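Typical record was shown:
=====
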Amino acid sequence: MSSTPQAMADKNKQFWDSKASSYDEEDWLQRIVKVFTEEYRKRLDWYGVEWAKEGDGREVRMLDFACGPGMASNAFLDHITHVRGLDVSKGMVEEYNKRAAAKGISSEKMKATAGDLLADDPSTQSHISGPEFNGFDLAVISLALHHMDKPGFALQRIVERLKPGGVIVVLDWTDKPAMKDGKPISDGPGIPKGDHHGHGHGHGHGHHHHGGDGEKKLEAEDTVVHQGFSKESLEPLLKEAKCDEVGYQLTDEPFRFGGRFDGQTREAFIARGRKAL
C-alpha cells in the first residue's frame, strides 16, 4: 500500500530527527561531505551568481532548502552575506544552528528554521512567508529531491523564493543504480525501498534506526521516492519551474560509500537554473 504524502513527511521528520546529532559522525560520511563541498566550490563561475566581495557592500542571500546540519550553507558561506536554512526536521535545524554558533557565526549571517515549503496549505507556514524567506539570490537543494513525490512541484516552490534572475542549484544522484565490483546493486544507497509517495526532505544515506518495543526498523531508504534524475528528466522540471540558462554536470567521480554500503558507489550531478526575469 502506498504511503500518503503526510505519512511520508512524518516518516522523514522521524528519521532525520533521530539522526540529527550523529548525521555525519562516521568517517566515510565526513569524506562524502568534504567531496560534495569541493564539487560545489569548483563550479562557482558556472552557476552564474554575482558573489559577494569584501568591501562592495552588496548583499548576496542564499536559501538552503532541506538544509540538514548545513553542508551546502558552509560550502557557499565565504561567497554570500546571509543564508537561511529550511528543514522539516526540528532536530536538523537545532543541529544546524548549534554548529553555526560553535564556529562563531552569527545568526544574522547563518540561521535555520523549521518549516515545510511544500505544505499543501501554505497558510500553515506563515512564519516562513515574510521577506526574510523570499527574494534570494541563490537557492540550493542537496540530496533531497529524490525524497519528494513531486520533484517538479518542489522545484517550483523553491524557485518562487528566488528574486528574478536568482539561481537554483541542485545536487543529487543520477538515475543510475549503485555499483559494486562493476555490477549494479538493486538495494544500494538512495534506492527506493518499496512503493513510496511523499514530499519529505532528505539529507543523505547510510543510516538506520532501530525502534523500541518491536517497532520496525526505519532506514534512510524508507524515505526515498526516486532513484535519481538524468539530465533528460531534470532539465525539463527546471524549465517548468520558470528557469532558463539550465545546465547539468556530472560530478568528477562517483561517490564511495561505507558502513552497510561499504564498497558501493553512486554517480551524482549538479544542476543549475536561473529564474526568468
